[in-house]
């Protein structure tokens, strides 16, 4: 797969089929993840795979409880996604969150059917500087294998119970960074169309100074087999 195809079409997939993911596929996904850059090559990460049906059932209950807590915070205007980002139309933001909640509802309702969960843990991670490149590498590798996934931090709302279920040695400093739900997607891959263009979220040399070029449409795939001609501005 072309690297740009992977970069442009890897998106969060919450509607997943229950078909099991072969062990060698899982190994390739994690082998790509551990090649990610990390500060000082300290590799202070641990990936815990969960595919036991009974354990997934217990985690499903916690996930639904944790998600209820998350949306209670959201409805009261709290949390990072409650308010639209600067320059984003509040109505469009509300519609986007409505769609995300809908697909999230599907994930929660079918949690027991998710074939594979990867819990990602780290020690002294400096705000995620080391672990999130590894997570993104895992998602890109999964895309190359035809496996979809979504990263969620919702279970951190009941972190202690998750740690107890999974036997995490928290006394050593391990802390949950995120969980990846992985499976073969029910939907289709595609380029995210609801992104603000480069020139609206970028600047050069000084905040709000023009970036220097306008990008009128996604640069992959080339339209009609030809590359998009970019217009210099500023």
Automatic annotation (TrEMBL):
The keyword Oxidoreductase applies. Pfam families: Nitroreductase (PF00881). InterPro entries: Nitroreductase (IPR029479), Nitroreductase-like (IPR000415), Nitroreductase/BluB (IPR050627). The keyword Protease does not apply. Keywords: Flavoprotein, FMN, Oxidoreductase. It comes from the Bacteria. One of its GO terms (molecular function) is oxidoreductase activity. Residues 10-184 form the Nitroreductase domain. This is Nitroreductase.
